[in-house]
Every structure is written in C-alpha cells, then in structure tokens.
Amino acid sequence: QSYCHRLQHDMYFLTSTSQLNEQVVDKIVLQLNRVYPQILTNEEAEKFRNPKASLHTRLSDLLKHLQKKGDRHCQEFYRALQINAEQLFNDLPSRKILKTPDPTEIDTDKEQYMLNDRGPVFFLACFSVAAGLALFWYCCNSGTQVIGRARRILGFSPIIIGRHVRNICMLYLEDMTRK
C-alpha cells in the first residue's frame, strides 16, 4: 500500500483526534521544511503554520497538499509524525492494518516452534525404541550365530547400559540359545 493511500486512510483519524495539538503540527511542518530532502518550501511552511487558521483546516490542507505532491512526501510526513508523536503514529488505523497478520499466511517462527516443541528427551526415547526394535528384529530373524555375536556385544557394554539391564539381556540370550 502506498503512503498516499495510507495517508488518505488516516486523514480522518489525524484531523478528528485532539491528540495532535498545534505544537506537534508545528514541529512536523518545521521538520518537513528544514530536513533534507526539503518537502515544504518556506512559503508553504508559513502557510501551514499560520496561527490565524484553525488547526483542523491547516492540518487538512497540509495532508491534501502532501498527497498531491506524491508518495515520497507522504512518506516523509509519516517519518516526521513518528519522530514527533510516536504514540499517535502507532495508533494510526493504517498501522493497525499493517500489524494484523494475514490469516492465510503461515507464520514460519510459530511453525518452527511447533515442529521442535518435543525436546531432546522425546528424541532420545524415540531413538531408543527404534534401536531396540532393530536389535530385536536382527536377533530374531537370523540364526544362532547372531545371538552369539549379540552376546559378545552385550558382554562388553557395561558403560552403555546398566548392569541390571545387561544381566537381563544376557539371561534372555542364554534362554534363546537353549531353545
């Protein structure tokens, strides 16, 4: 959305609220006049700072003038508004529209969190179950030579698994070799 369209959308809000007082409007006009690139000439700045005209009229004329000048001028107005009245800038209707997310759009940060919310314990549990099933399948589908190899592997693994678990596995393998 261009800055001119945004300004047109925000015009009623800016001119109707009493939050935008004369001091803030004067600061904005001075900034648009003095800061590079110069948006308002000296004559235009004097016209929009004229205390004889009402604030509503001056502000309406300023916004219409900026819309006629183009998108760059409207963008500089928003920058000046943000610098001089940040709370009002954040409350603009066009800002609220920009902040609301599109319901059809996928939020990648949230999706990444949803995929990784289980943690490392869940991963280790799944990996252990898969490794156990693979070992069981490997031992049961082959001949007795595999059981002997598995027995040797389990015999040298007191570091990997606990002593009680190792003893149970060894008893199971001895029982399988007897059958």
TrEMBL record:
Pfam families: CARD. It is a single-pass membrane protein. It is found in: Endoplasmic reticulum membrane; Mitochondrion membrane. This is Caspase recruitment domain-containing protein 19. One of its GO terms (cellular component) is endoplasmic reticulum membrane. It comes from Elachura formosa. It comes from the Eukaryota. PROSITE patterns: CARD. The chain crosses the membrane at residues 120-138. Residues 38-96 form the CARD domain. Associates with BCL10 by CARD-CARD interaction. Keywords: Disulfide bond, Endoplasmic reticulum, Membrane, Mitochondrion, Transmembrane, Transmembrane helix. CDD domains: CARD_BinCARD_like. GO terms for biological process: regulation of apoptotic process.
